[in-house]
Amino acid sequence: MTATILTKRPTHSMDIQPATQEQVVKANDEDWVVIEKDLSEVVKELKEIDSRLGVRYNGVQKFYALYAKETIKGVEQEYLVNTFTSLDKRVVNRVREIISPSYDYVAELEKQDAQAKKEEEHKMHEKMGENAELLAFAIRKDLGVKDKAFF
Q: pTM of this prediction?
């Protein structure tokens, strides 16, 4: 089945959200619709970048899959390239970034890992700071220490 999909407006952020692992795992073969055209011409631009690229939408799990078709020894095969929760010009920009000779996948992974670690440490500090305050208050209360303000 093919359809024209109304695409969402792009945001100013270059970040585009991929589908979750759970969405991908739960996606059934019969739930996919091949996107041949969209109002923002994202599919057209992707095919101009590489004619082997295609886009499908899973209406049940609510995400798009970018895939590549390739014929090897007379057998057509499809490969998942990436997943996205929206289809807009950011997808085209992301593909252009990935195929650029200057793109460094390892550096990007390291950057993402460092950011995730920083966010996790921040969450831990936030949680521990709050717990430490509660603990200090409980200890002062148990010991009968009253806070005095000095002016």
A: 0.64
